[in-house]
Amino acid sequence: MITDPALMSYYERGGERTRLREGRGRLEFWRTRDVLLRTLPPAPARVLDVGGGTGVHAEWLAAEGYEVEVIDPVPLHVSEAAELPGVTARLGDARDLPVPDGDADAVLLLGPLYHLPERADRLRALREARRAVRPGGIVAGAFISRYAALHEGVRLGLLLQEEGRAAARTAMETGVMISTNPLGGFRGYLHDPGDIPGEFTAAGLPEPRRYGVEGAFGLYGDVDDWLDDDGRRELLLDAARQIECEPSLLGVSGHLLAVTRVQNA
């Protein structure tokens, strides 16, 4: 379960209801959906959405015909996700999943890995995902880029204050993120894209394919204009798709996905 009181307090405020449904966060939502639709096994596969929050991805997965269960450590998230059509939800920790071996066709870790500052905890979560997925199934993890704090510091003006500059330096040098958001203050971990494959293999998983989620487009000031219009949004998604796996551009993306298929027994 979440042991950081600041992190629990942050999520209990309910910000996850809207983060990916409004504004710039929609680019992360649409791109994550785009990658998963191309990499998950076909419906009606069983998907464990670990750390799935209020069910923003579980909702569309269920609508696509998947059998979806959200496992999350925040009671508010679990109660809200459980109200979604076709979605079940229960409390649980990514490091100790309350499911039997080989329970799912796919395990999604779309939040836990950047909320675990200690590498040993991230490896535990990845090993649990490996245990919970059936042979031949998919494990997908989301990560925040090591350089995201610097990029956001410029976009939001946080670098104008010494506290913001220090947080960005610490994140780039160590990976440890200390949120300067007045509503936050929790610790997290930002990944160097080159370190992601090693964490998967150290957990006994095959080396994953890495995807830049927003790419450089997440840095654009007028991205909302593209997301508001269906036609322009599809053009934006197609542009991001063309460069999503380019190694030289992975670190520019605010978020990354890593997807692997577990070897058959």
CATH C-level class of the largest domain is Alpha Beta
The main sheet orders its strands as: 3-2-1-4-5-9-8
SS summary, helix count: 10
Query: What is the succession of H and E elements?
Result: HHEHEHEEHEHHEEHEHHE
Helix content: 25-40%
* Largest sheet features: 7 strands, mixed
CATH architecture of the largest domain: 3-Layer(aba) Sandwich
List unreliable stretches of 5+ residues.
Answer: none
Structural class: alpha/beta
Distance, first to last CA: 30 Å
CATH topology (level 3) name of the largest domain: Rossmann fold
Shape: globular
Q: Total strand count, please?
A: 9
Q: What number is the mean pLDDT?
A: 92
Q: In the CATH hierarchy, what is the superfamily of the largest domain?
A: Vaccinia Virus protein VP39
From the alpha carbons, calculate the radius of gyration and give it in angstroms: 17 Å
Number of domains: 2
Beta-strand content estimate:
15-25%
Pfam families: Methyltransf_11
Organism: Nonomuraea salmonea
GO biological process, one term: methylation
GO molecular function: 2-polyprenyl-6-hydroxyphenol methylase activity; 3-demethylubiquinol 3-O-methyltransferase activity
Brief descriptors of the model:
single chain; 265 residues; alpha/beta; Rossmann fold; 2 domains
Task: Explain this structure.
The chain has ten helices and nine strands. It is an alpha/beta fold and 265 residues long. The protein is 37% helix and 19% strand.
At a glance:
This protein is 37% helix and 19% strand.
Secondary-structure blueprint of this entry?
Layout: H1 5-12, H2 25-39, E1 46-50, H3 56-63, E2 67-72, H4 75-81, E3 87-91, E4 104-109, H5 119-132, E5 133-144, H6 148-155, H7 162-174, E6 176-178, E7 187-189, H8 196-202, E8 209-212, H9 223-228, H10 230-242, E9 255-261
Parallel strand pairs: 1-2, 1-4, 2-3, 4-5
Antiparallel strand pairs: 5-9, 6-7, 8-9
Helix pairs in contact: 6-7
